[in-house]
Design a protein that fits this description.
The complex is a heterotrimer.
Chain A: H1 18-49, H2 51-60, H3 64-91, E1 95-96, E2 99-100, H4 103-127
Antiparallel strand pairs in A: 1-2
Chain B: E1 5-12, E2 22-29, H1 36-47, E3 66-69, E4 72-75, E5 89-92, E6 99-101, E7 104-105, H2 108-116, H3 137-143, H4 154-158, H5 171-181, H6 189-196, H7 210-214, H8 221-241
Parallel strand pairs in B: 1-5
Antiparallel strand pairs in B: 1-2, 3-4, 3-5, 6-7
Helix pairs in contact in B: 2-5, 5-8
Chain C: H1 2-19, H2 25-37, H3 39-69, H4 73-96
Helix pairs in contact in C: 3-4
Classes of the chains: A mainly alpha, B alpha+beta, C mainly alpha.
């Protein structure tokens, strides 16, 4: 007798199927977001040090490489936001009586509209 | 036309034998209206009586014929041969479970996990006043979706996290716990919280979402787990901010 | 939180600040400083950074576990969550001393 056979899940599961690969990409965006938060803290720190330090950093950010990194982080953040909001109906289902509101409605009211409002408020506050 | 055939590549394992697990090919008659389970039954009746597999209702209600079909967890009573013909179809036991024999997996562990979340109505008070607890249709709608589970275990075979966390409660058990937590007649949320919080339960989930994708009953276990995470987080904050309050 | 705020933050620090200018660098600084030091902005920044850092730490830890480092998951937990905690303390310091 050898008893029951163990069959482990493939170690490389995250490259084996489209859905698993999309999951990995979605989660990988967190690396960019984490990296950007560190940068944001540096940015705020420089600002606290005074105009010269701050202006040196702003100057450095005009470098094509800095712009490219920002664009990369922006793409990752957008992907993160969009996938996140598309999943909100599963996380926070809304009901009216017996009926569950359609997923699109929940994604828009709980995700996309607040996102637009927050983004709009930030850009308005900065560009005003 | 009459003798068209399709190849089934079937996983074989005998615990009393000395060989390793093998793949055995069977040439099975092809009929447009046949599902994989029909082909397995044909093998059992006409080609090889030693093949073991579980099945019962043939109509997606009993949840016992779940297997890996070309690597995807499926109910074999709901997978038509015509969707694969003329390519061969590989049939293996559900992954993430110990294999007892051929296509039969051991579900002991799964049953223990189901029990761990106390999937029954828990009441602080005793007998219901008039023999039953009343519930409005909208209270029923809160949890109905999560009560449709047939324990087919496909969601466990779709989950990449289970293999690394052997004690992970897993999709169906957490969805079942959530179903009772959402039930207006139940008062047992705090008793389930211990089993539900933590790395072996909701926080072991990374929301891959494949459990929901493979569920034949649209239970949405992934959604249930995320909702349970929200509830667990609220519970934690309430505990930290209001330690004197009732849990 | 990260989902709501991050794209706009990145647009501001990556595009708006370096590429729009009122002509006078000192005046630009004054204005930026004024916006960031307004207390509601400081508090929002802190909450967003705090929550996003821990969320990121949790997800990065789980990616690494998925990629095969499950055996050292406790080490990863210490590393990731203390990193997030350090970032939160840094945020508190930076935002408090602006």
């Amino acid at each position: 007798m050898r008893g029951p056979l163990r069959r482990p899940f493939p170690r490389d599961w995250f490259v084996r199927k489209g859905a698993y690969r999309r999951f990995m990409v979605r989660e990988m965006t967190s690396v960019f977001i984490g990296g950007y938060i560190v940068f944001l803290l540096v940015w705020l720190y420089r600002m606290g040090q005074g105009p010269e330090q701050y202006q040196a950093l702003v100057e450095a950010m005009r470098h094509p490489l800095a712009v490219a990194l920002h664009m990369l982080a922006l793409a990752a953040a957008m992907y993160h936001s969009i996938t996140w909001f598309n999943l909100t109906p599963a996380v926070m289902p809304l009901r009216i009586g017996e009926d569950r509101l359609p997923n699109v409605v929940v994604a828009i009211t709980m995700g996309y509209l607040p996102w637009m409002a927050v983004s709009g408020a930030i850009l308005w506050g900065v560009l005003r | 036309m009459a003798d068209r055939r399709i190849t089934l590549e079937v996983f074989r394992y005998r615990p009393d034998g000395d060989g390793e697990a093998t793949i055995q090919d069977y040439r099975v008659p092809y009929h447009e209206h046949w599902v994989v389970l029909d082909a397995l039954n044909w093998i059992k009746d006409h080609a090889d009586g030693t093949l073991s597999f579980r099945w019962s209702c043939r109509m997606g209600v009993c949840g016992s014929c779940g297997m890996m079909v070309n690597g995807e967890p499926r109910l074999t009573c709901a997978v038509f041969l015509k969707d694969y013909y003329p390519s061969p179809i590989r049939v293996e036991p559900l992954i993430n479970f110990p294999v007892e024999r051929d296509l039969v997996i051991s579900m002991d562990d799964f049953l223990a996990k189901l029990q761990a979340v106390k999937p029954w109505l828990i009441r602080d008070d005793e007998e219901p006043p008039e023999g039953e607890y009343r519930q409005t249709p909208s209270q029923l709608a809160q949890y109905k979706q999560f009560s449709m589970c047939i324990n087919c275990m496909l969601c466990y075979a779709a989950c990449p996290e289970i293999d690394g966390i052997p004690d992970f409660l897993g999709p169906a058990a957490i969805a079942l716990a959530h179903r009772y937590n959402l039930d207006s007649r139940d008062q047992g949320q705090s008793q389930r919280q211990e089993a539900l919080g933590g790395e072996e339960a909701v926080w072991g989930c990374t929301f891959v979402g494949e459990c929901t994708a493979v569920c034949p009953k649209n239970v949405d276990p992934a959604g249930a787990i995320q909702q349970a995470k929200v509830a667990s987080t609220k519970d934690w904050y309430r505990h930290v901010l209001l330690p004197w309050g009732k849990r | 939180m990260a989902a709501l705020f991050m794209p706009a933050f990145i647009v501001v620090t990556g595009l708006v600040v370096p590429f729009t200018t009122g002509g006078d660098a000192d005046l630009d600084y004054e204005r930026a400083h004024q916006v960031v030091t307004w207390w509601p902005v400081r508090i929002v920044l802190f909450v967003v950074v705090f929550l996003s850092l821990f969320h990121c730490a949790h997800r990065i830890r789980h990616i690494l576990m998925d990629l095969g480092l499950r055996a050292v998951s406790t080490v990863l937990a210490v590393f990731c969550y203390s990193g997030a905690a350090a970032g939160t303390v840094a945020a508190l310091f930076v935002l408090g001393t602006l």
